[in-house]
Every structure is written in C-alpha cells, then in structure tokens.
Amino acid sequence: MIFNVFELVSFISSIMTLMPGDVIITGTPPGVGPLNVGDVVEVEIEGIGVLRNNVIGSHK
User: Fold this and answer.
1) Contact 43/25 with Cβ under 8 angstroms?
2) pTM of the full predicted structure?
3) How far apart are CA 41 and CA 10, in angstroms?
4) If we measure between CA atoms, which residue out of 49, 31, 50 comes closest to residue 41?
5) pLDDT tens by residue, 16-53
6) In which band, very low, low, confident or very high, does the pLDDT at 3 lie, cut at 50, 70 and 90?
7) Integer-rounded Cα radius of gyration of the chain
8) Which of 5, 9, 34, 48 has the largest CB neighbor count within 10 A?
9) Closest Cα to residue 54, out of 8, 13, 42?
10) SS3 label, residue 9
C-alpha cells in the first residue's frame, strides 16, 4: 500500500465521521497483476473470520 493504515484513517476521519462497522476500501496500485483462474483471494479480520473467494472465470 502507498499509505499505511494510520495515514488512511487519519485522512478519512478528517473529512468524514467514521462509525463502528465502516469499511475503508482502497484501490490497487500500478504494477499489480490481474487475477487468474485458480487464484484464491483471502481477507481476514482477526476475531471475525476469513472471507475466501476462488477465481473461476473472468468478464471481458
């Protein structure tokens, strides 16, 4: 990531009120390759669990 979590939360909270449950979604920096069939994308939040998605196809 270009900015760390502390910088992101600081900036966003300076322009809007962050509430419990809000999710901050960031973009993808240049140079990151595309997802391919067979790839697995995982997001984990400690104490909550893991969201796991398998890449099975693509839209063109």
Assistant:
1) no
2) 0.47
3) 27
4) 50
5) 999 999 989 887 767 777 888 999 989 888 999 999 99
6) confident
7) 15
8) 9
9) 42
10) helix
